[in-house]
Amino acid sequence: MTQTNWVIVVHGGAGAMRSMGAEKEAEYRLGLAEAARAGAAVLARSESAIDAATAAVAAMEASGVFNAGHGSCLTLDGEIEVDAAVMDGRDLSYGAIAGVPGLSNAVELAEGIRTGSPHCLFAGSKALQLAATLPGFTAIEARPSAERVRKWESHRRNNPVAPSLADQLTALGGTHDEGDTVGAVALDGEGNLAAAVSTGGIWLKQPGRVGDSPLAGSGLWAENDCVACAATGTGEFIMRVALAADIRSRVQAGSTASHAAKDALAALRERFGSDRAGVIALGHDGEIAAPFDTAGMGRAWMRSGDAEPTVRVWPEEDQ
Ligand code: ASP
Asked: From the CB of 296, is ligand 1 less than 6 Å away?
């Protein structure tokens, strides 16, 4: 049966973001709304869920507002190293990159790998060599903004040596300072599901560190007639419970997308404590879920027929 209803859901990261200030919050909300609109425009043209999820994430990478693309946080060495992934629920095709230096349009490279390579995941600067061979793909360089460099200098002053994860979580505030990783899930008019994720990782990560974001089953999953989801938060916890795979199993066992997402997050919390993660999930029936156990998580969605996206950051906005 062909269905005509489509849905796009995006997130701008889960984290300890209460201190972001009114100006940054306004920018952040605008970035979320624009990303939802970018994905919605693709779906309204009857294009695929994977194109919509990729377009929404690409919009957030280009904005410089989020921890992805131009806005990526910096490693201990003050560099940008990005992770990204896409997954198409039609055939479980998946493309990803990990620890790629100085790349802004990471999600497009992941999509180029999904469609143009027999392999799924490329790491480090070799991924840029592959990028040069992919038809239609041009790498865009990500340079840290002055604001990011200032922030790096201040974090670095407080962390003269490589912080342990525990120190990092305490010093940088619960999960990490700004959980502005980005992700999107989409359901197109044909009933196909897709997911896309892009991130600079976590502040002061050791060079070469890779989080959950590019890992199918941890940072994302998309499977038609089941669920699409994209995680955010501290990768060192998310990947150890395979959060996206857990949500998928719960849906396969009969849970709705929202129960599955909530229960999988509760299982993570039980094992590793709270203030760790958030996730967006989209059921094959169009059900939207966006649970998180951090102070905030930017989230926005649009359904066919909506004039404007719904945008939320704080938990109390769900009441
Ligand atoms: N999950 C990402 C990572 O650990 C960070 C985030 O979502 O904010 O690299």
From this structure: no
